[in-house]
Fold these 2 entries.
Entry 1:
Amino acid sequence: MSSTDVSKVKILIVDDSDFSRSIISKMLSEEGYQVVGEAANAETALLMVKEKRPNIVITDIVMPDVSGIELTEKIVNNFEGTSVIVISSLSQEHIVLEAIGAGASDFIAKPIQKQQLLDSLEKIVGLNSDE
């Protein structure tokens, strides 16, 4: 366990499902993470990333207009220091590879298990703790 202060880790949740967003938000808040925003689509998410500068964006893949894969690419290419965790109920290997190829730091299949999410965040925060 790293000594990273999770309350300083800013997270943005992107999912077109209000239910999914609220579940993830609750999981993170219970653990002391700072959820700086929630977005229902990629367009809103990009504006929020620009404005709030989260350390980590958790995004669903299947969303209207712009997919989570495209969103991941945009964040990784335009916002240095922001990591992306991709979540999806689609967990076929090619989709996982596409997400990682787009620059995602991790992939979590839905339904999300809290411990899996926390492990993923811990891993990413650990990687970025040299700031």
Entry 2:
Amino acid sequence: MLKRLLDVVLSFFGLLVGSVVLIPTIVAIWLQDFHSPFYIATRVGQNEKLFRMVKLRSMVINADKSGVDSTSTKDPRITRVGQFIRSYKLDELSQLWNVLRGDMSLVGPRPNVKRETDIYTREEKRLLSMRPGITDIASIVFSDENEILKDSQDPDLDYNQLIRPWKSRLGLLYVDNHSLTLDINLIYLTAVAIGSRERALASVQKILVKLGAEPELRRVSRRTDKLVPYPPPGATEIVTNRDAPPA
């Protein structure tokens, strides 16, 4: 109940204050190609229920028809205005509407496309037991996801091999330990990360220690070492085929 109250109050005021930036950005998106400034993305929510997530459109029209779900900073589908949107996470600010509606929460595992949740392991399916969020521990640790994939020849496969294993583990850690205090802390650190990612990552380490995270997860979450392929939680093999769940 308190979590939902926090969601409603902060998302309402967030949209109110954010309108100063959102409205000019919406106009700029429309002026670049005279198409809708919004991209309505179908995502998998709590208990695997599909919902329509509102995002500011950062790509060219019909970009989703390419069949590629993961993007990099060099993705040619991203528009000039889209680069600005992604740099300042404005597409996530628009998702406060989904929080206000009850589709999402301010804090929770990030929502994914059905093609990805279909290949979740049984362990990863627990990520769908609660409302997805705008931010969480993984959102701070992997805030540079596009940069990680910038030189990738297959962004979707590299995402599943390099990012998903740890993103899912961090999401599961949140599912098992979520609290109002943790939510407030993560909202604060998400804001801190915009100005100082290093400071935010240092604070995340303290959270991981407090939550009893495994040493390997803490090591990767420092983001000082190169990411290497690793099996997702609940699997023993690295993902090599995105069309089937890993063994």
